Amino acid sequence: MVTVGLTFISALVGWSATAALTAYAQRRPSVAAIAWLVAAFGVTVGLSAAVIGVLFDFGELTFRLLHIGVSLIGPLFMAWGALEYAVRSPNARFTARLFVTALTVVPLVVLSVDRISGRFGTAFPPLGDHYDLIPRSLVNGVQGFVAILLVLAIIAVARRGSRGSGVTDLSVLGLVVLAAVLSVVVGRMGIGSLGPLLMLGAISSLWGAAALAAKPRRDLYDDDDDYYDDEYDDEDDELDDEPQEEPVRRKRRNADTYDDLYADAPAPPPSKLRGVITIYTLADGQGGGFDQVANAVVAEVAKREPDTLLFAAHTVPSAPLQRIVYAIYRDELAQEEHEQQPHVMEFTRRLSAHVVATNVIELSLSGAAANDGLAAMLMPR
Known about the structure:
The protein is an alpha+beta fold. The chain has two domains: 2-214, Rhopdopsin 7-helix transmembrane proteins, CATH 1.20.1070.10; 235-378, 2-Layer Sandwich (Alpha-Beta Plaits), CATH 3.30.70.100. Helix content is 64%, strand content 9%. The protein is built from 13 helices and four strands. A four-stranded antiparallel sheet has the order 2-3-1-4. Helix 3 runs parallel beside helix 5 (133-160) and helix 6 packs antiparallel against helix 7 (194-214). The termini are far apart.
């Protein structure tokens, strides 16, 4: 009865995790979130079948469902989600998607129809005890591919070092690795009454990883900084808070008038100004998500970076999947300070969910002419 209770609890937690991951995927849609949702759903279906198996002895159907979820879908989509979360290279992601498609369809068909041999009991049955050589070989290949994806994801985060949210990314990957390893161990060995307990740990680890990945990076900001307090989820709150900052920002912009420029506060020499143009190519359907993230960081730059003289984001009417962001900094130091701002690092981290390619052009301004009302026209209130 202990095994029955643990299996039932594991399945119940699995359905709860699946519901939570569905909410995360809707709140911050990304390929990684969807992959982890599929992994949780597959494992949960397998555990639900296992509840019947430990109550009335396993049969062909419950055995197949258990291992399709625990040995195939769960580990494969956990690892794919980890790679999508950690790796920014479009080529690497595209290649992984091709392999994931092939390694899902073919083994799924084989595990669903291949002959099963041996007698079943109420304990979690190891995959190798009842499947023949071909399905065992396919699952071994899939699990080897899972190990490769997880290693690549860890290497990608480790190469970025401590920049941005590296510690959080490593924590997310660590939980995903733990979930995948536990799922593979249970599928290969069964482990009797420990099987449902280990699967409870696997589904909990995956849930924790997805929750940590979806959580805004509040630890990068001061307690009085409400930049990421649901700013991406509730635009109405952002609009309600905005007028409180308007007098400060208008005062700063209006203070840099024509008279001040040539009298009390002369502009720095043009040779000191720095500019950057960044061209983003978006994934299909990610225009709205990118624009929301970009609008938020533009607002933060306006409030917190007086030495960033201009920071603007534009759509491209003739190319709906392109966005252009350009910036002008007072000097090289201002550019370095901008790149180290928490809201800029958070913006960079969130781009991976929306962007497939990025081109950066750095400029040294040699001469310019601008109307006094340029700032007001670019950022109307």
